[in-house]
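Hi everyone, sorry if this is the wrong subforum. Our group has a chain we'd like a structural model of before ordering constructs, and none of us has done structure prediction before. Sequence below.
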Amino acid sequence: MNPAEDFRRHLDTIRQISRDVCRRLYLSGDECDDFTSSVYFKLIKDDYAVLRKRQGRSSLATYLYAVIRNHGRDYLIKKKGKWRASQGAKWMGETAVELEVLLYRDLHTFEEAVQILHSRGCQESEQELEKMAANLPVRQNRRFEMGEDAIRHRPSAMPAADMIMIEKEAQSQLREAVSILEELVGQLEIVDRTIVKTVREGLKLAHVATSLGLKQKEVYRRKKRLFKQLRQQLKKRGVSREVLFDLFKYSK
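Answer:
Right subforum, don't worry. Here is the predicted structure as C-alpha cells:
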C-alpha cells in the first residue's frame, strides 16, 4: 500500500466527498474552499498518517467518506463553537437530542442515525424517529433532509448514484457491527448487561452500584474493562475503527 499514490489516485474522490460534506454543512463558497484545503492537509499530514491507518476492511472511498465526514464535524465545532442541543430537541426528550447530534453535528444520514440509536437501546421505531427528525428545528442555516431524495435534489460535485453507493456501504458496515455488538452483549452476565444498558441509555452508573450493592469505583472499573473488551472483540470480528468510533462515542 502506497498512501501517497492512493492520495493522488483518489484526489477527485476526496474533492467530491469534501464538497458533499460542505453541502451538508451549508458552507459558503469560501468556507468550502477552506474546508477542502483542510481535508487535503489532514490526509497528507505526518506522511499520510491517516491513509496509512486504513485497515483495508472497507473500500478506500468509504474510508475517506468516514474520515472526511468526521473532519467536517470537527471543522464546524472549530468555526461555530461547541455543540449545544437546541431547545426544541430538549423539549422532545433525550432521544431527540441524540438524533439531532447524529444528524446535524456528526453528519450521519438518517438511516445511519437510526442504526446507531437502536444499537444504544433506543425503543422508538424508524417511523417515530422520522417524525421526530422532521420536527427538529433548523440548525445554523442547515435543515434536515433524509435519504436518497435529499442527495438527488441538492447539487453535488459527485454523481448522486456514487454518493449513495458509498453511503450504502457505510450503512451496511454499521448494521453488521450493530448485529455483532448485540450478539456479544447477549452473551454477557447480567451485571455487565446492566452496565451496558445503563451507558446506552445515558444513565448514571451510580444507580447500578446502588441497585446491585456494589461500590461505585468497582462499577466504573468494570465498565471500562467491559467496553475495552467489546471493542477488541468487535475489532477481531472485522469491524473498522471508524465504525467503532460511531458505536462507542457515547460510552466515554
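For your construct planning: Residues 87-144 form one domain. Residues 141-159 have pLDDT under 50 and may be disordered.
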